[in-house]
Design brief:
This is Origin recognition complex subunit 4 C-terminal domain-containing protein. With about 220 residues, the protein is mainly alpha-helical. It has two domains: about 90 residues, no CATH class; about 110 residues, Winged helix-like DNA-binding domain superfamily/Winged helix DNA-binding domain (Arc Repressor Mutant, subunit A, Orthogonal Bundle). It is built from eleven helices and three strands, in the order αααααααβααββαα.
């Protein structure tokens, strides 16, 4: 079973039969919903972890139940529907299993950025933090330990943080306005899970391993 097969099955379970205007509108909205990056990432995490049509059916049934409970009778490409899909996933598949699968698929740079977020949360005991504070932590890593991970433009790192938000590992503050550097975000996964995933990254540069050891000092 490929991921495309898995994605097609998800659509099939939710697609409405017939050629009525209601069915056409529903199926059109469903196609837009499935093309949403955060939806694809939720399903990819389930696919990588379980690869089971039975589990997918349970998630879809739970998702429909959540939609109806909230008075939503048509799937749409909205934050609310995406959140309910994640909620359905979490109800069926242990969230730590899915998160570990997603985190383990990150690049080394993304993993280091996520570890910087975990460090900020753990050391400063704060729920929200800015993109700028994460990048400052990352710059300390590249300046002191591994220059090979350095990038010339902070915007590249901001886009990586946006990607981590799309993967639901971080969550953007809805109140953000102004410069991207001051966008606030919050960590949505366990700090120790992030550090664990970085520690088993292969191949892990010795300098990054030393950085991890120094995090607790």
């Amino acid at each position: 079973m490929t991921f495309d097969d898995f994605l097609d099955a998800f659509c099939c379970f939710l697609r409405m039969g017939g050629d009525s205007s209601n069915a056409r509108n529903h199926n059109s909205s469903l196609d837009e919903f499935v093309n949403e990056c955060s939806v694809v990432n939720v399903l990819k995490g389930v696919y990588n972890e379980r690869r089971s049509y039975s589990v997918l059916k349970q998630i879809v049934a739970t998702f429909i139940g959540f939609l109806l409970a909230d008075g939503i009778h048509c799937i749409s490409n909205t934050l609310e529907c995406c959140c309910l899909l994640r909620k359905a996933r979490d109800a069926i598949v242990p969230v730590d299993d899915v998160n570990e699968s997603i985190i383990s698929s990150l690049t080394l740079r993304q993993l280091c950025l996520l570890t910087c977020c975990a460090r900020i949360v753990r050391n400063n005991r704060c729920k929200e933090f800015t993109y700028r504070s994460v990048v400052q932590n990352y710059r300390r890593l590249t300046n002191s330990y591994l220059a090979a991970l350095s990038v010339s433009d902070d915007v590249i790192l901001y886009k990586e943080l946006d990607t981590l938000c799309d993967l639901a590992l971080l969550e953007k503050s809805p109140s953000f306005t102004g410069q991207l550097a001051f966008r606030k975000t919050s960590l949505q996964v366990d700090c120790e899970l992030v550090i664990k995933c970085l520690s088993v990254f292969t191949p892990l540069p010795v300098a990054v391993s030393q950085w991890l050891q120094d995090l607790d000092k």
